[in-house]
Design brief:
- The chain is α+β, with helices and mostly antiparallel strands.
- It folds into four domains: about 90 residues, Rossmann fold, CATH 3.40.50; about 70 residues, ATP-grasp fold, A domain (Dna Ligase, domain 1); about 130 residues, D-amino Acid Aminotransferase, Chain A, domain 1 (2-Layer Sandwich); about 80 residues, Glycinamide Ribonucleotide Synthetase, Chain A, domain 4 (Alpha-Beta Complex), CATH 3.90.600.
- It has 13 helices and 22 strands.
- The chain has a five-stranded parallel sheet.
- β16 and β17 form a beta hairpin.
- Glycine (GLY) binds next to loops.
- The site of glycine has 7 residues, from loops.
Length: about 425
């Protein structure tokens, strides 16, 4: 494919994944200029209903079958949602067959797949991040902890589905987290490794850079709500809601993050010979000393992606294709709405612990310009009814000229859908709402 063809936008797009993030991506790509059809695999109970969207049942880990889909459907662009297939080399495999992929290869995915690797890269790049000690054995980790004499943050090295981090309040808690990791709680056991980190303080914000290996486009900053309980209490979750643009980071703040964090990171990746074509997701803490990277991910955040996609202009698919081809400079600029976007997640009863599933979802809501219902943990049963099948079940997203109205609309949308055990926080966006 050449640069002028890329400017037309990809006709056939494949989205890999099954969450709310992939539902939002598929919806936004369906609306993009030049896109004739979008395939989602394995998708969920919502993606099968999207106009212009076809659902397949190939799982993310079946790279052979995914390659087959690309060839059969003459896919012009693959957008990989989750981190696991990226870390497992899906993008490398498809690229070897000439298929443009938005998502880094296994080398770049280490940004998320190994905390030790990411920390070393940050040091190399001079990116601000909390002080840390890598450790590859239980004894080493415990002796760092004793030497520091304070409760450090404990992070398992590999992919841990968002559960590998303990922000310890006491030394005892930090010790227990270390023991857990070396007992094999996140795989590896004896061969496990981790990072111990200084605890930092401040509000958190997510910034996404769409990269083509050399250049980048930044999306508006988004703020997630990680805790299950209102008032940001209780256990961590995948994210219970989000809003964008987060006023915590104004235009100048975002520019500072580009210069201090994202550009040096992309350069350091290049210096390692890594052609990073996909999202760099910087999870930042805004400390008194300035932004500090808490984590990098190699994919869009969920629910940040659901929040951001409705703000994207019709150039989205072309821009993602240009990233995949290493030709961002040839793409039209991405128009991004300046409206306020609000997202509230409806979770299953018990989430983030033991959840109930199989509950029928009732109520109708047609996705429109201001209000969207994206499915996450849902599936169609034998009769074609939509039932819950995961922890985070639905994402209700709304846009308006201010956050009060956007959240009021999102919450009114949630009143139109129901399932047994449906739970959601009523205070999402409390930082930006006056009501
Ligand atoms: P992560 O899985 O790396 O996003 O970490 C989960 C959560 O742990 C983050 O969203 C932060 O709230 C918290 N966290 C991680 N690292 C630190 C740190 N160095 N200091 C304070 N909190 C942290
Ligand atoms: N919303 C946090 C994440 O996607 O990791």
């Amino acid at each position: 494919m050449n640069a002028s063809a890329s400017l037309q936008g990809p006709a056939h797009v494949l989205v890999v994944g099954s969450g709310g993030r992939e539902n939002a991506l598929a919806w936004a790509l369906c609306r993009s200029a030049g896109v004739e059809a979008v395939w989602v695999t394995p998708g969920n109970g919502g993606t099968s209903e999207l106009t212009g969207c076809h659902q397949l049942s190939v799982v993310e880990s079946d790279h052979d079958a995914l390659l087959g889909v690309c060839q059969e459907q003459r896919i012009d662009l693959v957008v990989v949602g989750p981190e696991a297939p990226l870390a497992a080399g899906l993008a490398d495999r498809l690229r070897q067959h000439g298929i443009p992929v938005f998502g880094p290869g296994a080398d770049g995915a280490q940004l998320e797949a190994s905390k030790q690797w990411a920390k070393a890269l940050m040091v190399e790049a001079g990116v601000p991040t909390a002080g840390f000690w890598p450790a590859n054995s239980r004894t080493e980790a415990l002796s760092v902890l004793e030497a520091q004499g304070k409760p450090l943050v404990v992070k398992a090295d590999g992919l841990a589905a968002g559960k590998g981090v303990t922000v310890a309040e006491t030394l005892e808690e930090a010790r227990a987290a270390i023991e857990d990791i070396f007992a094999g709680r996140f795989g590896a056991g004896d061969g496990a490794s981790l990072v111990l980190e200084e605890r930092t303080h401040g509000p958190e914000v997510s910034v996404f850079a769409l990269c083509d290996g050399e250049r980048m486009v930044l999306l508006p900053p988004a703020q997630d709500h990680k805790r299950i309980g209102e008032g940001d209490t209780g256990p961590n979750t995948g994210g219970m809601g989000a809003y964008a643009p987060a006023p915590l980071l104004d235009q100048a703040g975002l520019e500072q993050v580009r210069q201090l964090v994202l550009e040096p990171t992309l350069k350091a990746l290049q210096a390692r010979g890594i052609n990073y074509r996909g999202v760099i997701y910087a999870g930042l803490m805004l400390t008194e000393a300035g932004p500090s990277v808490i984590e990098f991910n190699c994919r869009f955040g969920d629910p940040e992606c659901e929040t951001l996609m409705p703000l994207m202009g019709p150039e989205l698919a072309t821009v993602l294709l240009a990233c995949a081809l290493g030709q961002l400079h040839t793409a039209p600029s991405l128009t991004i709405s300046g409206r306020c976007s609000a997202c509230v997640i409806a979770a299953a009863q018990g989430y983030p612990g033991e959840i109930r599933t199989g509950d029928r979802i009732t109520g109708e809501l047609a996705n429109g310009d201001d209000l969207q219902l994206f499915h996450a943990g849902t599936r169609r049963d034998e009769q074609g009814h939509c039932v819950s099948s995961g922890g985070r079940v639905l994402a209700m997203v709304a846009q308006a000229d201010d956050f009060d109205r956007a959240f009021a609309l999102a919450y009114s949308g949630l009143e139109q859908v129901q399932f047994d055990g449906m739970t959601y926080r009523r205070d999402i966006g409390h930082q930006v709402r006056s009501t």
